[in-house]
Amino acid sequence: MGAISSDKLVELVQSYGLPLIWAIIIFIVGRIVARIVSNGVGKMMTKGHVDETLIKFAKSMIYIALMIFVVLAALGKLGIETTSFAAILAAAGLAIGLSLQGTLGNFASGIMLILFRPFKVGDFVEAGGVSGIVEEIQIFSTKMKSGDNKEITVPNGQIVDSTITNYSAKETRRVDLVIGVGYSDDLKKVRAVLEDILNGDERILKDPAPTIGVLELADSSVNFAVRPWVKSGDYWPVLFATQETIKLRFDAEGISIPYPQQDLHIVKEESAA
User: Fold this and answer.
1) Mean pLDDT for all residues in the chain
2) Closest Cα to residue 208, out of 178, 175, 240?
3) Peptide linkage before 155 cis (omega within 30 of 0)
4) Dihedral pair phi/psi, residue 228, rounded to 5°
5) Cβ(215)–Cβ(178) below 8 Å
6) Taking residues 180-189, what's their average pLDDT?
7) Helix, strand or coil, per DSSP, at residue 140
8) In sequence order, what are the beta bridge partners of 216?
9) What is the dihedral of CA 130, 52, 116, 133, to 10 degrees?
10) CA-to-CA distance for 168 and 259, rounded, in angstroms?
11) Number of neighbours of residue 190 by Cβ within 10 angstroms
12) pLDDT tens, residue by residue, 85-138
C-alpha cells in the first residue's frame, strides 16, 4: 500500500478532521453552557422559594433539552443530515407521550401541587379518596401516612381530580359535638354543666368563644350543640377528653343521656278449655 501524499492528507484533514474538531468543540462548549443555564434557572427558582422537587426536575429538563440541540448541532457540523433525525425524535416523543398519557397527567398534576401548594409535608389531608399525614410530594405521586402508620402512595392525578381537605391549613379548628339529654332534665342545669366542662379545659380557646345551644328537639332527647374552638393539634385529644368528661359529669349530676330503647310486649293467649 502506497503512502498517502501530503495533498491527500490535507484534503482528509479538511474534509473530516476540522469538522470533527469543530463538532467536539461545539459539544464541549454546549455542555458547559447547558450546565450554566440549568444551574442559573435553578438559582432563580431557589430565590423564588420554589419547591426543591420542582427545581431539580426543571434543571434536569432544561439540561436535557439544551443537550439535544447541542448534539444536533455537532452532528450537523460533521455533515450528518439532522432533519430526519429530528423528525424521528419528534415521532418517538409523540409515541411515548401517547403511551404514557396517565403518567404525564400525574406529572402535570405533580407540578400543580408543587406550584399551588394546597398542602405541604406534615399536613393532615383528605384527598384522592384517602386521608393521612403528607410525608413526601413527588413529581408523579404523593406519599401519606395513615393514622395506623400505613404508607399510602396516591397518584397526583387522582389527588388533583378530587376535593382536597386540608385539616392542618388553619391554626384553629372547631370541635362539633351533639349531646342529647332527656326531656325531663333541667336544661339550664345542663347548659351550666357543659359551660363548666369547657371552661375547665385549658386547651379550649376563649376567643372565639365556645358555642352551646339547643340544636334540636328530637324524638327521644333534647340535643345540645357543643362547639368549642381549639388549636388544630389539640383537636383529637380535646374531642376524646370532652366526650368522656361529659359522660362522667352527667352521671354525677344526675343528667340522663337517652339512648334508643324498644319495649317488647308479649301477649299470651289462654288455651281453650
Assistant:
1) 83
2) 175
3) no
4) -85, 155
5) yes
6) 95
7) coil
8) 223
9) 20
10) 34
11) 21
12) 666 666 666 565 554 455 677 778 887 887 788 998 889 999 988 999 999 888
Give pLDDT, residue 103. 66
Q: From the CB of residue 205, how many other CB atoms can be counted at a distance below 10 Å?
A: 15
Q: Cell for 152?
A: 399510602
Distance CA 229, CA 27 (A): 64
pTM recorded for the entire structure: 0.61
CA-nearest of 167, 102, 111 to 138 is 111
Here the cell at position 209 is 368563644
For residues 123 and 271, the model is more confident at 123
User: Between residues 162 and 65, which one has the greater pLDDT?
Assistant: 162
d(CA 121, CA 232): 16
Say which amino acid occupies 261.
Q
Which residue type occupies 248? L
H-type helices in the chain, by residue range?
A: 6-12, 18-47, 52-77, 83-99, 101-116, 156-160, 187-199, 235-253
Backbone φ and ψ of 99, nearest 5°: -75, -15
Q: Which residues pair with 132 in a beta bridge?
A: 125
What separation in angstroms does the CA of 252 have from each of 124, 126, 255?
Answer: 37, 39, 8
Question: Max Cα separation, the chain?
Answer: 141
More confident call, 42 vs 88: 42
